[in-house]
Design a protein that fits this description.
Strand content: 25-35%
Helix content: 25-40%
CATH class of the largest domain: Alpha Beta
Shape: globular
Bound molecules: adenosine-5'-triphosphate
Number of strands: 10
Order of helices and strands: EEEHEEHEHHHEHEHEEHH
Number of domains: 2
Radius of gyration: 18 Å
Structural class: alpha/beta
Length: 245
Protein backbone atom coordinates (compact mmCIF):
# COMPACT_ATOMS: atom_id res chain seq x y z
CA UNK A 1 0.00 0.00 0.00
CA UNK A 2 1.19 3.56 -0.78
CA UNK A 3 2.52 5.32 2.33
CA UNK A 4 -0.02 7.88 3.63
CA UNK A 5 0.87 11.50 2.99
CA UNK A 6 -1.73 12.76 5.43
CA UNK A 7 -3.04 10.86 8.45
CA UNK A 8 -5.82 12.40 10.48
CA UNK A 9 -6.87 10.49 13.59
CA UNK A 10 -9.73 11.32 15.94
CA UNK A 11 -9.67 15.06 15.23
CA UNK A 12 -12.20 16.95 17.34
CA UNK A 13 -12.94 20.66 17.51
CA UNK A 14 -15.51 22.59 19.57
CA UNK A 15 -16.60 26.19 19.39
CA UNK A 16 -17.83 26.78 22.93
CA UNK A 17 -20.35 24.00 23.51
CA UNK A 18 -20.83 23.33 19.79
CA UNK A 19 -19.08 20.25 18.39
CA UNK A 20 -17.82 21.24 14.92
CA UNK A 21 -15.65 18.13 14.39
CA UNK A 22 -16.34 14.88 16.17
CA UNK A 23 -13.42 12.44 15.99
CA UNK A 24 -12.63 12.63 12.26
CA UNK A 25 -10.28 10.01 10.79
CA UNK A 26 -8.89 10.45 7.30
CA UNK A 27 -5.93 8.88 5.53
CA UNK A 28 -4.76 10.26 2.20
CA UNK A 29 -2.05 8.46 0.24
CA UNK A 30 0.33 10.46 -1.93
CA UNK A 31 -0.96 11.07 -5.43
CA UNK A 32 -4.67 10.85 -4.74
CA UNK A 33 -7.46 13.23 -5.79
CA UNK A 34 -9.96 13.43 -2.96
CA UNK A 35 -13.27 15.28 -2.88
CA UNK A 36 -14.52 16.45 0.52
CA UNK A 37 -18.22 17.24 0.59
CA UNK A 38 -20.95 17.86 3.13
CA UNK A 39 -23.91 20.16 3.67
CA UNK A 40 -23.37 23.77 4.82
CA UNK A 41 -21.96 23.87 8.33
CA UNK A 42 -20.88 20.21 8.32
CA UNK A 43 -17.31 21.08 9.32
CA UNK A 44 -15.37 21.00 6.04
CA UNK A 45 -13.68 24.38 6.46
CA UNK A 46 -13.08 23.69 10.15
CA UNK A 47 -11.31 20.47 9.22
CA UNK A 48 -9.20 22.25 6.59
CA UNK A 49 -8.36 24.95 9.12
CA UNK A 50 -7.23 22.28 11.61
CA UNK A 51 -5.11 20.60 8.91
CA UNK A 52 -3.53 23.83 7.73
CA UNK A 53 -2.94 25.13 11.26
CA UNK A 54 -5.25 28.16 11.32
CA UNK A 55 -7.29 26.42 14.02
CA UNK A 56 -6.04 24.21 16.83
CA UNK A 57 -8.04 21.01 17.34
CA UNK A 58 -8.63 19.77 20.87
CA UNK A 59 -8.42 16.04 20.28
CA UNK A 60 -6.66 13.78 17.82
CA UNK A 61 -3.56 14.04 15.67
CA UNK A 62 -2.65 15.23 12.20
CA UNK A 63 0.42 13.66 10.65
CA UNK A 64 2.01 14.74 7.40
CA UNK A 65 4.63 12.39 5.93
CA UNK A 66 4.47 10.55 9.25
CA UNK A 67 5.32 13.62 11.37
CA UNK A 68 2.91 15.05 13.92
CA UNK A 69 2.05 18.65 12.99
CA UNK A 70 0.99 19.63 16.55
CA UNK A 71 2.32 23.04 17.49
CA UNK A 72 3.14 24.07 13.91
CA UNK A 73 1.46 27.20 12.53
CA UNK A 74 0.13 27.63 8.97
CA UNK A 75 3.39 28.97 7.54
CA UNK A 76 5.44 26.13 8.99
CA UNK A 77 2.96 23.62 7.56
CA UNK A 78 3.19 25.29 4.16
CA UNK A 79 6.95 24.98 4.32
CA UNK A 80 6.53 21.26 5.07
CA UNK A 81 4.52 20.91 1.86
CA UNK A 82 0.89 21.33 2.92
CA UNK A 83 -0.69 24.30 1.14
CA UNK A 84 -4.26 25.47 0.88
CA UNK A 85 -6.19 27.99 -1.12
CA UNK A 86 -8.98 30.05 0.41
CA UNK A 87 -12.66 30.26 -0.45
CA UNK A 88 -12.27 34.03 -0.74
CA UNK A 89 -9.07 34.83 -2.65
CA UNK A 90 -6.77 37.10 -0.67
CA UNK A 91 -4.08 38.37 -3.04
CA UNK A 92 -1.78 41.25 -2.10
CA UNK A 93 -3.80 44.03 -3.76
CA UNK A 94 -0.85 46.36 -4.29
CA UNK A 95 1.37 43.72 -5.96
CA UNK A 96 1.25 42.52 -9.56
CA UNK A 97 0.18 38.95 -10.33
CA UNK A 98 3.84 37.93 -10.77
CA UNK A 99 4.82 39.56 -7.47
CA UNK A 100 1.94 37.77 -5.76
CA UNK A 101 3.51 34.48 -6.87
CA UNK A 102 6.97 35.59 -5.84
CA UNK A 103 6.05 35.98 -2.17
CA UNK A 104 5.12 32.33 -1.41
CA UNK A 105 7.79 31.15 -3.82
CA UNK A 106 10.58 32.88 -1.94
CA UNK A 107 9.06 32.22 1.48
CA UNK A 108 8.11 28.56 1.22
CA UNK A 109 9.74 27.06 -1.85
CA UNK A 110 13.21 28.30 -0.88
CA UNK A 111 12.77 26.79 2.54
CA UNK A 112 11.53 23.51 1.06
CA UNK A 113 14.46 23.37 -1.33
CA UNK A 114 16.88 24.30 1.46
CA UNK A 115 18.60 27.06 -0.51
CA UNK A 116 18.14 30.57 -1.87
CA UNK A 117 16.89 30.79 -5.43
CA UNK A 118 18.67 33.07 -7.88
CA UNK A 119 16.70 35.86 -9.61
CA UNK A 120 16.61 33.99 -12.96
CA UNK A 121 15.39 30.86 -11.13
CA UNK A 122 12.66 32.88 -9.41
CA UNK A 123 11.59 34.46 -12.71
CA UNK A 124 11.55 31.05 -14.40
CA UNK A 125 9.52 29.48 -11.62
CA UNK A 126 7.01 32.37 -11.56
CA UNK A 127 6.54 31.96 -15.33
CA UNK A 128 6.10 28.21 -14.87
CA UNK A 129 3.43 28.58 -12.16
CA UNK A 130 1.55 31.26 -14.12
CA UNK A 131 1.74 29.05 -17.22
CA UNK A 132 0.39 26.04 -15.31
CA UNK A 133 -2.57 28.13 -14.15
CA UNK A 134 -3.25 29.74 -17.53
CA UNK A 135 -2.23 33.20 -16.27
CA UNK A 136 0.94 33.71 -18.32
CA UNK A 137 -0.40 36.82 -20.05
CA UNK A 138 -1.53 38.38 -16.75
CA UNK A 139 1.90 38.55 -15.06
CA UNK A 140 2.09 42.37 -15.03
CA UNK A 141 -1.58 42.96 -14.24
CA UNK A 142 -2.87 43.93 -10.80
CA UNK A 143 -5.29 41.61 -8.95
CA UNK A 144 -8.12 44.16 -9.29
CA UNK A 145 -7.88 43.78 -13.11
CA UNK A 146 -8.62 40.04 -12.99
CA UNK A 147 -11.93 38.39 -13.81
CA UNK A 148 -13.45 36.16 -11.13
CA UNK A 149 -12.15 32.96 -12.71
CA UNK A 150 -8.63 34.40 -13.08
CA UNK A 151 -8.78 35.50 -9.45
CA UNK A 152 -9.50 31.87 -8.49
CA UNK A 153 -6.58 30.74 -10.63
CA UNK A 154 -4.34 33.29 -8.92
CA UNK A 155 -5.42 31.95 -5.52
CA UNK A 156 -4.48 28.43 -6.65
CA UNK A 157 -1.24 29.71 -8.19
CA UNK A 158 -0.21 31.30 -4.90
CA UNK A 159 -0.70 27.97 -3.12
CA UNK A 160 1.12 26.20 -5.92
CA UNK A 161 4.08 28.58 -5.73
CA UNK A 162 4.94 27.07 -2.34
CA UNK A 163 5.62 23.80 -4.23
CA UNK A 164 3.30 21.71 -2.06
CA UNK A 165 2.96 17.96 -1.98
CA UNK A 166 -0.62 18.37 -0.77
CA UNK A 167 -2.89 21.12 -2.05
CA UNK A 168 -6.24 21.69 -0.35
CA UNK A 169 -8.53 23.72 -2.59
CA UNK A 170 -11.38 25.21 -0.54
CA UNK A 171 -14.35 26.03 -2.78
CA UNK A 172 -12.31 27.23 -5.73
CA UNK A 173 -15.31 27.29 -8.09
CA UNK A 174 -18.25 28.93 -6.32
CA UNK A 175 -20.00 31.47 -8.53
CA UNK A 176 -18.25 30.44 -11.75
CA UNK A 177 -19.96 29.51 -15.03
CA UNK A 178 -20.09 25.86 -16.17
CA UNK A 179 -17.22 26.32 -18.60
CA UNK A 180 -15.12 28.12 -15.98
CA UNK A 181 -15.80 25.28 -13.52
CA UNK A 182 -14.58 22.82 -16.18
CA UNK A 183 -11.46 24.93 -16.63
CA UNK A 184 -10.63 24.86 -12.90
CA UNK A 185 -11.34 21.11 -12.66
CA UNK A 186 -8.97 20.52 -15.60
CA UNK A 187 -6.28 22.66 -13.94
CA UNK A 188 -6.60 20.76 -10.66
CA UNK A 189 -6.45 17.40 -12.45
CA UNK A 190 -3.35 18.69 -14.28
CA UNK A 191 -1.67 19.57 -10.98
CA UNK A 192 -2.49 16.11 -9.66
CA UNK A 193 -1.05 14.50 -12.78
CA UNK A 194 2.09 16.58 -12.20
CA UNK A 195 2.46 14.80 -8.83
CA UNK A 196 0.53 16.91 -6.34
CA UNK A 197 -2.00 15.24 -4.04
CA UNK A 198 -5.16 17.35 -4.17
CA UNK A 199 -8.12 17.62 -1.79
CA UNK A 200 -11.07 19.52 -3.25
CA UNK A 201 -13.78 20.95 -1.02
CA UNK A 202 -16.70 21.81 -3.22
CA UNK A 203 -20.48 22.06 -3.37
CA UNK A 204 -20.73 21.77 -7.17
CA UNK A 205 -21.36 18.03 -7.46
CA UNK A 206 -20.66 17.85 -11.19
CA UNK A 207 -17.16 19.20 -10.51
CA UNK A 208 -16.66 16.93 -7.51
CA UNK A 209 -17.63 13.82 -9.51
CA UNK A 210 -15.44 14.83 -12.45
CA UNK A 211 -12.46 15.46 -10.22
CA UNK A 212 -12.53 12.91 -7.40
CA UNK A 213 -10.99 9.45 -7.32
CA UNK A 214 -12.32 9.16 -3.80
CA UNK A 215 -15.07 10.96 -1.97
CA UNK A 216 -15.27 11.78 1.74
CA UNK A 217 -18.50 13.06 3.29
CA UNK A 218 -18.83 15.06 6.50
CA UNK A 219 -22.17 15.57 8.19
CA UNK A 220 -22.47 17.43 11.52
CA UNK A 221 -18.73 17.13 12.10
CA UNK A 222 -18.64 13.36 11.57
CA UNK A 223 -17.28 11.45 8.60
CA UNK A 224 -20.20 9.39 7.35
CA UNK A 225 -18.79 8.00 4.11
CA UNK A 226 -15.41 7.53 2.45
CA UNK A 227 -14.83 5.61 -0.77
CA UNK A 228 -15.43 5.38 -4.50
CA UNK A 229 -17.48 8.45 -5.57
CA UNK A 230 -20.17 6.51 -7.45
CA UNK A 231 -20.81 4.32 -4.38
CA UNK A 232 -20.55 7.12 -1.81
CA UNK A 233 -23.25 9.24 -3.49
CA UNK A 234 -25.64 6.28 -3.31
CA UNK A 235 -24.96 5.77 0.40
CA UNK A 236 -28.34 6.13 2.22
CA UNK A 237 -26.93 8.45 4.90
CA UNK A 238 -25.42 10.69 2.21
CA UNK A 239 -28.70 10.82 0.30
CA UNK A 240 -30.51 11.66 3.54
CA UNK A 241 -28.05 14.44 4.39
CA UNK A 242 -28.38 16.00 0.94
CA UNK A 243 -32.07 15.51 0.42
CA UNK A 244 -32.88 16.41 4.03
CA UNK A 245 -35.02 13.32 4.52
N1 LIG B 1 -15.01 30.47 14.63
C1 LIG B 1 -16.18 29.87 14.85
N2 LIG B 1 -16.89 30.11 15.97
C2 LIG B 1 -18.07 29.50 16.20
N3 LIG B 1 -18.63 28.60 15.37
C3 LIG B 1 -17.97 28.33 14.24
C4 LIG B 1 -16.71 28.94 13.90
N4 LIG B 1 -16.29 28.45 12.70
C5 LIG B 1 -17.24 27.58 12.30
N5 LIG B 1 -18.24 27.50 13.21
C6 LIG B 1 -19.43 26.64 13.13
O1 LIG B 1 -18.98 25.32 12.93
C7 LIG B 1 -19.82 24.64 12.00
C8 LIG B 1 -19.00 24.10 10.86
O2 LIG B 1 -18.59 25.21 10.05
P1 LIG B 1 -17.69 25.02 8.76
O3 LIG B 1 -17.43 26.40 8.23
O4 LIG B 1 -16.54 24.18 9.08
O5 LIG B 1 -18.69 24.24 7.81
P2 LIG B 1 -18.54 23.94 6.26
O6 LIG B 1 -18.88 22.50 6.08
O7 LIG B 1 -17.23 24.40 5.76
O8 LIG B 1 -19.71 24.85 5.68
P3 LIG B 1 -19.85 25.58 4.25
O9 LIG B 1 -20.04 24.50 3.24
O10 LIG B 1 -21.08 26.41 4.43
O11 LIG B 1 -18.60 26.40 4.02
C9 LIG B 1 -20.90 25.64 11.58
O12 LIG B 1 -22.05 25.42 12.35
C10 LIG B 1 -20.29 26.98 11.92
O13 LIG B 1 -21.28 27.93 12.24
Amino acid sequence: MTKPLLQVEGVGKRFGGFIALDGVDLTIPAGERVGLIGPNGSGKSTLVNCLSGTLVHETGTVRFEGRDLAGLGPHQRTRRGLARSFQLPRPFASLTIAENIRVPLVYAAESRRGRRLSEPEIAERIAEVLGQMGLADRARHMPCDLTQVDMRKLELARALAAEPQLLIADEAMAGLSNSEVDEIVALLIGLNEAGITVVLIEHIMRAVMQFSQRLVVLVSGRKIADGAPAEVVRHPEVERAYLGQ
